[in-house]
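The methods section describes the discrete structure representation at length, but only in general terms. The central task, working out the structure tokens from the amino acid sequence alone, is never made concrete. Nothing conveys this as quickly as seeing an actual entry. For illustration, here is how one protein appears when written out as sequence plus structure tokens:
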Amino acid sequence: MSTELSFRKAKQQNTLERPAEDDSLMLLKDQANFELSKVTFNKEKKEFIGLPTVWGQILKNSKITDEEIQDNPEMVLNSMRAYLKLVKPKYLIIEASHPALDEGRDNNLEAEDSVDSIECESTDESDGHFRFRPLRVGMGDGEFNSKIRKVANTGSVVDKYEIQQELGKGASGRVHKARCRTTNQVVAIKIMDLTHQPKKDMLITEIKIMQSCKHENLVNFLDCFIQGNELSLVMELLDGGDLTAVVNTVILKESQMAAISGECLKGLEYLHKNNIIHRDIKSDNVLLGRAGSVKLTDFGFCAQLSIERRERITRCGTTYWMAPEVAACKSYSVKVDVWSLGIMVIEMIDGQPPYMDVPQFRAFFLIAQKGKPDIPNEQNLSSELKDFLNKCLEPNVDKRASASKLLAHPFIKTAEPLTFISEVLEAVRQHKEKKLVY
């Protein structure tokens, strides 16, 4: 039965000019090692003492007011710490008990003694402990080649797959549609030039993890091949694209939001029970299939297997979906994914996440300081949806619901069959074509 769809009015795109902030980020990368612990706030002078000039410029560009700084100087500093990790990541999070990481671990991958361990908060799904270790820069080609050949096939990808049209292209490689010569399965293949991959040790680690993860709500890893300097990653192909195109175009019914949220929660429950944090849940990283499938992607290196949305990644990163504990530079658990799912539901309601129209660092500060954001048109939402959002967007991590508990929430029980996805995707396609004509 055909469903009447409502289309979203085009929102004014975030055209905020931020050249000075972008310049500051470039400078920040050269001054990333200054110690924030030495920065103090002088209440009489109402200013930070010991803060590098570049940070003063970032604060100015962020439009954080003097009153906000005076009321929350420590919160501002904590936001700086989190922001620093985003613009210049120095650590790779690992989970000590995950078998894919334990297997083959050697001295080359161990943390340096000088790096402090960070124990994340325990959850009802897992009592695993997380720690940070420094990313080693400049892994030698010989060492990398030795490791990659333990996890990748050394034959030619074209012997097994017929490479077809290009689907997308990004800085790290290009994505092609392909067909398996023996099974006729249609897949996506990301072909990467390894000479342009700076985090080679992370790539190997994530391949190991993905090889061990199989679930109907994850875009599953199928195979990988290395030949010369080219690494080909073979993944499932979803023919409907990402959820972002849908939320930007169509106003979904609550029952449809519930259906999509429920499928994402199934994927998160699987990851969390295997002690894995996704850390980047947002509409860009939910892929849809016309037959009615909803799958998480951007799991580690799998972000590179989606058609990259460079503008949104480079300008916004993942800031707007970030949990308060991350924005405040605190230790975190799998429940950061639950928070991000709640923000993604707001995307489905409003077409974009909260704070999309403010500079990135101010968004950091507001997320850390305010906690739960305002819900657009909250008065028009059902009691079930409002309660679901409250349980996702609970600033207190101990009180925030787990993925498993949310799967039993009354809101998820209102979900309609996933057959609506085909009709919604067709409506998005037609709407896009109509806009191109006019």
Remarks:
- The CA atoms of residues 28 and 334 lie 30 Å apart.
- The chain has 17 helices and 13 strands.
- The first strand starts at residue 6 and ends at 7.
- The first helix runs from residue 19 to 30.
